[in-house]
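Lab notes, practical 5.
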Amino acid sequence: MKRFLTAWLLLIAAASWLLASTLISETWTCADSDSLNCDYANWTECCTGDDWDIVSNTARNAFDNGTISWARTATIGTADYTTQADVNPGTSGNFGVCARRVANGASDSDWYTAFVHDGNDQFTVYKRAAASWTLLGFYNTAIAYGTFYTVKVYARGTTIKGFLNGTERVSATDSALSAAGDACIARSSFGQTTVWDNFLVEDFSAGGAAARRRVVTP
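Output from the prediction step:
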């Protein structure tokens, strides 16, 4: 009986570790607005010449300056977390989410990102540090304009992963960015017709519930 009880307690402990704890959930199910604040009220937008809005219950660039841009949360309380969103790429470029974003002077950022690119038909995970991009891994797959993809970046210690539609596609080891930073939706090129939805930050990187997906025409 004691052996059975011990095994049961170990199973409960293991299951608890696997459960994801939601830190931030944002669906942008609010009236159209010149602000991303909806379910979550602490969005900060970047950058000069950019404008992030709520449009038809989604997040979009109402205007962008053609350079790297993001809309970020407040600092996350742990460095081990996942950032996820549904992303509908509206043009050729990198669009996705980030984790451990910290300022690197002016509007530049250091971060880990997971991107879809409909021009290159790739899902990629990048590190950006000291104004330099480093490709940590990629997965070749058809990425179509007008289609939502669930994109997730996973940061736990030095393990950085990328998930596409709930499946792990990239795994790398990197120790350059260890601070918690914040989470974000992000792009590295023009993106006025790209759509973000169902943003989710969770603090157990083994977790990560699949976000619901909504078909939206950009």
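Observations recorded by the TA: Residues 1-17, 205-218 have pLDDT under 50 and may be disordered. The helical segments are 2-18.
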